[in-house]
Amino acid sequence: MKGALTNVPITKEWDIVGARQSGRNMARDLGFGSVDQARIATAISELARNIYLYAGSGEVSFEEVQGEAPVGIKIIASDNGPGIKDITKVMEDGYSTSGGLGAGLPGVKRLMDDFDMESNEEGTKITIVKWLR
Amino acid sequence: MRIPILKLQNYLLVSVQIELDDQTAMQFQEDLLNKIHSTGATGVVVDLTSVEIIDSFIAKVLGDVVSMAELMGAKVVFTGIQPAVSMTLIDLGIHLQNVQTALDLEQGLIKLKQELEEK
């Protein structure tokens, strides 16, 4: 299990559900409680939807990690889409270019412990971690 | 996948028992409005006890259906939102302020009855 890596490709809408279910299962197996499982699954759902909506396709990967706590789950959402033009703006609550609630990325940051985003014209990579406390 | 919508007197009852993907949520929105139209229902209870995840998209669809139903003259109450879902929604910054909620189906029906009698 340790270091196990799972990749879920995101190419269609249903893959959003598949990704968050895989993430929730892994979080549960790692010992996360039901509230953290919901937080992790929701964060994955937001990132997977962003891939589907803005990049068309990409992938979400899950990995067990150690660091601040003995056990954590690291999730990487990556795509080769057009990138995020204004990184400051997308982290503002209520900002959306798709008519959504604009809760996605700032929400994901609040749901998780670590949040890191890299984006340029060649794609976007968002890495999030939740530690088991 | 379709979510069944049951009619009980002037009310519609919905129990969401499946994982909500975007398409199912959108379909539900349309089905519910059509059912309100065809039955003339004045109140709707949507029970979310089995729903384990509400992300920002699903929250928007659910919030919108309340406003849409209201435009048609029907009140919607959500019931049974799980503790984990409630905490996650607030973390996301989603407060669903215009949405009526109740602890369970029974409380939901009582709330609906009160709301409709006030009018």
Query: What do the pLDDT scores of chain A average to?
Result: 90
CATH level-two architecture of chain B: 2-Layer Sandwich
Work out the number of β strands of chain B: 5
Number of helices of chain A: 4
Protein name (chain B): STAS domain-containing protein
Pfam family, one (chain B): STAS
InterPro entries (chain B): Bact_StressResp_Reg (IPR051932), STAS_dom (IPR002645), STAS_dom_sf (IPR036513)
Organism (chain B): Filobacillus milosensis
Summarize the structure.
Chain A has 133 residues and is α+β, with helices and mostly antiparallel strands. In chain A, 38% of the residues lie in helices and 29% in strands.
Structural notes for this entry:
Chain A: Pfam families: HATPase_c. Chain A: It comes from Filobacillus milosensis. Chain A: This is Anti-sigma regulatory factor. The complex is a heterodimer of chains A (133) and B (119). Chain A contains 4 helices and 5 strands. Chain A has 133 residues and is α+β, with helices and mostly antiparallel strands. The radius of gyration of chain A is 14 Å and the shape is globular. The mean pLDDT of chain A is 90. Chain B has helices spanning 22-39, 56-71, 83-92, 105-118, and strands at 5-8, 11-15, 43-47, 75-79, 100-102. Chain B starts with a strand and ends with a helix. Chain B is 49% helix and 18% strand. Chain B has one domain: 2-Layer Sandwich (Transcription Regulator spoIIAA), CATH 3.30.750.24. In chain B, strand 3 (43-47), helix 2 and strand 4 (75-79) form a beta-alpha-beta unit. Chain B is built from 4 helices and 5 strands; from the N terminus they run ββαβαβαβα. The interface between A and B is medium-sized, with 26 and 22 residues.
